[in-house]
Specification:
The chain is mostly helical. The protein folds into three domains: 160 residues, Butyryl-CoA Dehydrogenase, subunit A, domain 3 (Up-down Bundle); 204 residues, Oligoendopeptidase f, C-terminal domain (Neurolysin, domain 3, Orthogonal Bundle); 154 residues, Orthogonal Bundle (Neurolysin, domain 3), CATH 1.10.1370.40. The protein has 27 helices and five strands. The strands form two sheets. Strands 3-5-4 form a three-stranded mixed sheet, covered by helices on one side. A two-stranded antiparallel ribbon has the order 1-2. A hairpin with a 2-residue loop joins β1 and β2. α21 packs across α22 and α24 packs across α27. The longest helix has 37 residues.
Length: 595
């Protein structure tokens, strides 16, 4: 096996921004939109046969794919170097072109609206259109939110300003460097590197890492800038909610996730009811660590003063062993990703922080990581390769129903993490198992409870601005602290006052994808149900699981999961997962008496 740790974008896309093929691709965007307009304007509203709809989707999918190739390439370049002015300018130029193309294609939604709910649903239920059924149902469901063509034109033009604001936040955040003194030496680090120190066994280093983050994000200049950016983004979202007539502030996200408002409210409610479990975990951890007081910088701490490092090679080996034990197709695709220059593994200045997997119909998956040698980085590798494999398995779907909603998009990634953690667990000594359980619960609370805390903060901010309130970063700081304390109770001592609490400004998702974070919580709860089924059924479950992933976005989450025996409209679905978490917390508490 030859592991490649950098993307080779030339192999899959273009040589650089001046590549004639890229320039030709960009130049083709407007003509493609014009040709589609000539063929379908005043035609869509007359559709009455499945053959017409099939031809429409064939042409639309081809156009969309050709339009998107240059954009995908430039977004990858920007992820590798968010400070590159040449790329930034080209992205800005391309955004203008897309806005113009989108304006030419506004007739599409208008004509589907004219065709009407009843006719679209009749087409959706035609056996000849089975492959596009969910795409048509989604069109029918969204008709009530489509405005007139003039209003849609104005909103489309206005979207450029939102793109500039979102790019400003990302460019600003990725320009930050963080200072810290280690072993008497001052070091400059990326955000990924400074965040990784929050898991250090050395308490002083953990405290310094938090202080370093606060010095940057908590500075008055950063808070003013990020506070205004966030307020602008929230106002834009709120104006859309009002103009389109959504019933609740979260309904745009719930609609895109194909989840009923009641289902999402149930998810939030059941997790919030379980918040006291987090305080129980923290109290047991405090006792195991022998601390008098538990500070915020202790949350991600290991129990002992030993920290296991994982090279990228060893992380890869552990992941591949896990996949081979589970399923040969998962294993083979991971190998392909690692050998085919589609993983960019290590942090560097200007590179986008965090990790992601990117995939689309008719294209291979790509994964970006920032590996720093921590145990969590091993989980991140498995997580992102789970996304990539999900993208690969969904390739059998038509492009219009290729992408699963975000509520299901976390399924394979989190399931991979569960498989990995159980493999690690089987190989541990008693003392190592204590650390494993600490890590496991820390991750569960981070990916379920804390994500719901984020959503609660977002909902408060959006609802306040919806009601006409003007909010500044001071208000966001206090709201964030109140939601933190709602989850943690008095179990944690915070390092700064509520007025200086800048934690919200470090969360990219609340800026770029409002209310996205509940997808992590839902995904984790779903994986508890899936994994329990896997334990019960063994190998026979694997194909059923892969069928869920292969479905892409061809079925609505409620229906797809109901076919596999999971009722997400029932509180019991969420309570069952929380009961499993409580069992682990109880086991962790018992370790205190055995210390």
């Amino acid at each position: 096996m030859s592991i490649q740790t950098n993307w080779n974008l030339t192999k899959y896309f273009f040589t650089w921004i001046d590549d004639p093929r890229l320039l030709a691709n960009i130049d083709s965007i407007i003509p493609l939109a014009e040709d589609f307009t000539k063929k379908y304007k005043n035609i869509i509203k007359t559709f009455n046969t499945p053959q017409q709809v099939l031809q429409y989707y064939t042409d639309y999918e081809k156009m969309s794919h050709e339009m998107g190739t240059g954009s995908i390439y430039l977004s990858y370049l920007q992820s590798l170097d968010t400070q590159n002015d040449i790329v930034i300018k080209k992205m800005g130029e391309l955004e203008c072109i897309f806005i113009e193309a989108s304006s030419k294609l506004l007739f599409i939604s208008q004509e589907w609206k004219e065709l009407g709910f009843e006719k679209i649903m009749a087409l959706a239920n035609n056996p000849a259109l089975t492959s596009y059924k969910n795409a048509l149902i989604s069109k029918a469901d969204n008709l009530r939110y489509i405005l007139g063509e003039r209003e849609e034109f104005v909103l489309n033009e206005k979207s450029r300003a939102l793109g500039v604001v979102e790019s400003l936040r990302e460019e600003l955040a990725n320009s930050y460097t963080f200072e810290i003194e280690l072993d008497g030496e001052k070091k400059t680090m990326t955000e990924e590197e400074i965040r990784s120190l929050r898991t250090s066994p050395d308490r002083k280093i953990r405290e310094k890492s938090y202080e370093s983050l606060r010095q940057v994000y908590g500075s008055k200049q950063a808070q003013i800038t990020l506070g205004n950016i966030y307020a602008w983004i929230v106002k834009d979202w709120v104006s859309d909610v009002k103009l389109r007539g959504y019933k609740t502030i979260m309904e745009p996200r719930n609609t895109s996730e194909e989840l009923e408002n009641e289902v999402v409210d149930m998810l939030l409610q059941e997790v919030q009811y379980a918040y006291p479990l987090f305080a129980r975990f923290i109290e047991a951890k405090r006792k195991l660590m022998g601390l008098d007081v538990f500070h915020i910088y202790d949350v991600q701490a290991p129990l002992w003063n030993i920290e296991k490092e994982f090279s990228f090679d060893s992380a890869v080996e552990l992941h591949l062993e896990t996949m081979k034990d589970f399923d040969e197709e998962f294993h083979s695709y991971s190998l392909d990703m690692l050998e085919s220059w589609r993983i960019d593994a290590f942090p560097k200045y200007g590179k986008r922080s965090g990790a992601f997997a990117s995939y689309r119909a008719w294209e291979p998956s790509f994964v970006l990581l920032n590996h720093t040698g921590k145990l969590r980085d091993v989980s991140t590798l498995s997580h992102e390769l789970g996304h990539a494999t999900h993208g690969y398995l969904s390739q059998g779907q038509k492009p219009a129903v290729y992408d699963s909603p975000l509520s299901l998009a976390e399924t394979a990634s989190i399931f991979n993490e569960m498989l990995l953690s159980e493999k690690i667990r089987r190989e541990l000594s008693v003392e190592e198992y204590k650390e494993f359980l600490n890590e496991k619960l820390s991750d569960i609370f981070a990916t379920i409870f804390r994500q719901i805390q984020y959503i609660s903060f977002e909902r408060r901010a959006h609802e306040a601005i919806f009601a006409g309130q003007e909010l500044t970063y001071h208000d966001f700081n206090r709201m964030w602290r109140e939601e933190q304390v709602r989850m943690t109770g008095t179990s944690i001592v915070y390092d700064v006052s509520a007025d200086d609490e800048s934690g919200w400004s470090m969360i990219p998702h609340i800026f770029g994808s409002p209310f996205y974070c509940y997808a992590y919580a839902f995904g984790n709860i779903l994986v508890f149900a899936l994994y329990n089924r896997y334990i019960q059924e063994g190998v026979s479950f694997v194909e059923h699981y892969k069928d869920i992933l292969r479905s892409g976005g061809s079925k609505r989450p409620k229906d797809l999961l109901a076919e596999n025996g999971f009722d997400i409209t029932s509180p019991k679905f969420y309570q069952n997962a929380i009961e499993e978490i409580e069992k682990m917390v109880h086991e962790f508490e018992e370790l205190v008496t055995k210390k």
